């Protein structure tokens, strides 16, 4: 009597492999984010003195606005200027771009993508699960930083509200995933990791620069319409709460580039 062996494939294999294989880099990025928050946020009481006020007032207003320091003397403004608008933005973007450029283009260059696709994994499935992997890792960053920011709010005299922290975390998460989805899409279109890295990093940097120029010169305010950075932070979510219009723009762009990655990977000749 023969026994029939039934094998069941575990769900989301690409997603699980992406998350497991990148645990070291995720851990390093986690430590970096935590270190920045634990270093900078407790400094706020000492930064909110007369000397700092005099220093800010002595700087040209154009420079203050370009750097986003116009509200740095308030608790929400300080957290926005030092973390979510600068160091946190750089770290989350760098992580997302690294993951996004490696997911398709990096895998194709190494030959791993061809091997995976030849073992019954569909192209649409691969693209969507790698995108999910980027989103989930960024979501972990958002949860971690939200807990740390709220924990430090009272000791550091920041005066932050939980709802507003949630608002800025949504904006920060969306901004990071947008960079990752651009890297994913360019990687799927070109198969070149360097192109994916350069394009996604360039778009993120351009968005930051356009927002800075718009803050510096009112005649350049139209640049905010093309800046994802401005979409995320134009209404100061840490002070004002959720900006549904800005979040909607970011979400639409994320969906667009994720769909582009799926379409591009599905049409390209990978297996030769």
TrEMBL record:
Pfam family, one: ABC2_membrane_2
A GO CC term attached to the entry: plasma membrane
UniProt GO molecular function: ABC-type transporter activity
TM region(s), chain numbering: 26-44, 83-105, 126-150, 170-189, 196-214, 244-265
Superkingdom field: Bacteria
Keywords noted in UniProt: Membrane, Transmembrane, Transmembrane helix
Record protein name field: ABC transporter permease subunit
